[in-house]
Design a protein that fits this description.
By secondary structure, the protein is α/β, with parallel strands linked by helices. It contains nine helices and six strands; from the N terminus they run H-E-H-E-H-E-H-E-H-H-H-H-H-E-E.
């Protein structure tokens, strides 16, 4: 079936793009699979691009992916980009669709080894596929907005929002006092008890003053640990709902 879908594309030059995130070990498995696929379909890989970078970073912002796009622009005869799977182009469906549709508009066919529907070469059918993906991307946005709207109606979330608003009512003298206590070695817990504020308020004052640094996987809003969400393919805070871009 796959060979029939790719009929007429034999001996076509193409490039390959590989990405591994920091939690993955090696790009070799992707490389071997893509090369084997290209050989079986008669594709000729003229250049390979690989990088070790988080999928949370948009493809268009990745250094090696930018190099791949520049190479395609410099070599207009190459119209095919091979990837191991579409999730190499982005972490969320919207990111993947955005990258794929932009390439397709430029006449670049994105072929994923794992997603067989990308093997279809007929222009009109590919246009239909892109249209369907566009609808799915829009629906994903709707679902996220709806989940956010419902979450904001929850009593516990309203309480957290009210807590954040309280920060604006704290005068400058008290903020400076909190900063001074922290610099003297007092723990956040002790500062909170001594000043009558919550630990969240204390942390926020220290963070905004530049005294306290928040780790890469800590929520910048409530300072809880970010957890990996398998559905949205992003790091999220289960306490306040923050999503790391």
């Amino acid at each position: 079936m796959a060979s029939e879908l790719l009929k007429g594309m034999e001996s076509k030059p193409c490039i390959a793009y590989y990405r591994v995130s920091t939690e993955e070990q090696s790009v070799e498995q992707q490389r071997l699979t893509v090369r084997k696929f290209a050989e079986s379909r008669g594709f000729m890989i003229v250049r390979e691009f690989e990088e070790d970078i988080s999928g949370s970073i948009s493809a268009i912002e990745r250094p090696c992916f930018k190099e791949a796009l520049a190479f395609l622009e410099e070599n207009p005869g190459i119209k095919i980009l091979l990837v191991y799977s579409l999730d190499r182009l982005g972490r969320s469906f919207r990111d993947i669709f955005s990258t794929m549709s932009n390439l397709e508009r430029k006449g670049i066919m994105v072929i994923s080894v794992r997603e067989e529907f990308t093997h279809i070469m007929h222009p009109q059918i590919r246009d239909l596929i892109i249209a369907i993906l566009a609808w799915v991307a829009q629906y994903e946005v709707y679902l996220i907005r709806e989940r956010t709207r419902l979450a904001l109606q929850r009593p516990d979330v309203k309480k957290k929002i009210a807590k954040r608003r309280k920060y604006d009512k704290i005068d400058e003298d008290k903020r400076n006092f909190i900063i001074e206590l922290y610099k003297k070695g007092y723990s956040i817990n002790k500062i909170a008890k001594y000043t009558g504020e919550t630990e969240y308020i204390v942390k926020k004052i220290l963070k905004l003053s530049g005294v306290l640094e928040v780790g890469e996987f800590s929520c910048p809003r409530c300072f809880h640990r970010l957890k990996w969400d398998e559905v949205e393919k992003k790091y999220k805070c289960r306490n306040c709902g923050y999503v790391k871009a």
